[in-house]
TrEMBL record, chains A, B:
Residues 9-188 form the Prephenate dehydratase domain. Its EC number is 4.2.1.51. GO terms for molecular function: prephenate dehydratase activity. The lineage of its organism: Bacteria, Bacillati, Bacillota, Bacilli, Bacillales. This is Prephenate dehydratase. Pfam families: PDT (PF00800). SUPFAM superfamilies: ACT-like (SSF55021), Periplasmic binding protein-like II (SSF53850). Residues 207-284 form the ACT domain. It comes from Thalassobacillus cyri. Pathway: Amino-acid biosynthesis; L-phenylalanine biosynthesis; phenylpyruvate from prephenate: step 1/1. GO terms for biological process: L-phenylalanine biosynthetic process. One of its GO terms (cellular component) is cytoplasm. It comes from the Bacteria. PROSITE patterns: ACT (PS51671), PREPHENATE_DEHYDR_2 (PS00858), PREPHENATE_DEHYDR_3 (PS51171). The gene is pheA.
Length: 299, 299
């Protein structure tokens, strides 16, 4: 492996044991890793050149608001998306190795508010009397349980268990299956990244389209520019502009790499309609497959 | 005021002093109020008939994930939206009355992770050495500061200050202006609600459209059904179905009340395309205007 790979500075929304860190571990062989407390702090570090690469949640996140990532990327920093990694969200109930459920009852459950909410049904049925305690991340919840000697549990992923020498008392306690988080890998100066042995499931392009005024059918006209070129849109989301209520921009994911024919054609048509198009990135899309508990055990 | 108004049971995402509670105070004269720890817990209580009305964040929330509200409402409970309230998000730095910034330096700043992220630039410049501590809500952060005798501060709204007898040391420390949160008011059995003296800014209808398969131009066809009827869409968002990646449904806000001509026409056309349409609510939209600090003081 070339030395330069290990010299790459990679930042992510921390702490250790979060779903973001799972995405980072899946993406990179090695490097100089830094954990950031907030999404803006991580994106700022990329913008300022303090790190080469940042990894932040972009959709359906536990640790942070999607909107925060999108808004900060569209309004404050200019750091293109160079890859995305989709990670399945599987929440487990984590306890210390010496905790014996036959002897003691769990009195408190720690986790990020979103993770607790995702396990609402399970907690309601299994631990109706346990006190719910909220933390800044699932990783932090695991740290607290590891450092305590009380009969308490954390909700988090298997990495949080490993990082904090906890055991998984109960697998997959989330109420809904098929929950995923998409993470964006961003770089100020796109450079060749060494991604671990993943094969991209597809290539995608993300654009931001700003409409001159909120009028009936405007979005329909915008989408027509993509539709007649048979460009498939895998995501569309309207977001308010920071200039006030009622002014929206659209964030659109297209299921293909940027090219010099179709995209400039779309852009020219949208400009003729008074819209503007900003390219936020064209990138390979990776998926992390986490083995299910059934596959890990002898069952 | 009729007695029945006070008997209405209203639940909201708590605790006291959150932006959700600001929306609740703005909406209702009186009633029997219950604070819930999570969005699913509040929605479950409405579904189960334990409360008449629930108020939860729907977009750009501090306390909770938008996606959680939308997903829970579309997949788990059947509680129509009967009103929405938009609240401007203004974050202030809150301290105890006896705290003197001339004598002591703030060592820790407490708040919900999203609120801390929203004030990232301010904190970075003004309090680079303060430790950031994360709480489950802005309201909880204010409680912690009120109960402490250390030189610490909370980030929260003016209601959090009032509820916990804190003072606003610095107004409007959020990095971006014009940030708003939309709250949904939901009821299992829609009944006449006594809304305080607000005049709706408009009427809206929210629908969920499910596509049979993710194919190029599908969304464009769906929007055509609205566009040729000159129905203005104020929000559109694609969300993954819980059945796995790549299967999406669309959440669409239309800027008009449900009627018996246009909407059934749209529904019939979409069904002919193999799509299904589910009505999530048709409701008045209210806006809370919070006076700016300049208007409150003599400046």
């Amino acid at each position: 492996m070339p030395e330069s790979e290990y010299n790459q500075k990679i930042g992510y929304l921390g702490p250790k044991g979060t779903f973001t860190k799972m995405a980072v571990d899946a993406l990179f062989h090695g490097g100089d890793f830094t954990s950031y407390e907030t999404i803006p702090a991580c994106l700022d570090a990329v913008e300022a050149g303090e790190i080469d690469t940042g990894v932040v949640p972009m959709e359906n996140a536990i640790e942070g608001s999607v909107h925060l990532t999108i808004d900060y990327m569209t309004h404050h920093v200019d750091v293109p998306i160079v890859a995305e990694m989709t990670v399945p969200i599987k929440q487990h109930l984590l306890v210390r190795k010496d905790f014996d459920p036959e002897v003691e009852e769990i009195t408190q459950v720690y986790s990020h508010s979103h993770a607790i909410a995702q396990c609402h049904q399970y907690l309601h049925k299994q631990y109706p009397n346990a006190e719910l305690r909220y933390t800044s991340s699932t990783g932090r919840a695991a740290e607290i349980v590891a450092d305590s000697d009380e009969p308490i549990a954390a909700i988090g992923n298997h990495l949080a268990a490993e990082e904090n020498r906890l055991v998984i008392m109960k697998h997959d306690i989330h109420d809904y299956d098929n929950n995923h988080t998409r993470f964006a890998v961003v770089q100020k100066q796109p450079k060749t990244m060494k991604i671990r042995d993943h094969i991209p499931t597809k290539h995608k392009t993300t654009v931001m389209v700003t409409l001159p005024k909120d009028y009936a059918g405007a979005l329909h006209q915008v989408l027509a520019a993509f539709a007649w070129r048979k460009m498939n849109l895998s995501k569309i989301e309207s977001r308010p502009m920071k200039t006030g209520l009622g002014n929206y921009f659209f964030l659109i994911d297209i299921d293909q790499a940027y090219d010099q024919v179709l995209f400039p054609g779309v852009e020219a048509e949208l400009e003729a309609l008074g819209c503007s198009l900003k390219l936020l990135g064209t990138y390979p899309s990776y998926e992390l497959s986490v083995p299910t508990p059934n596959m890990q055990t002898s069952q």
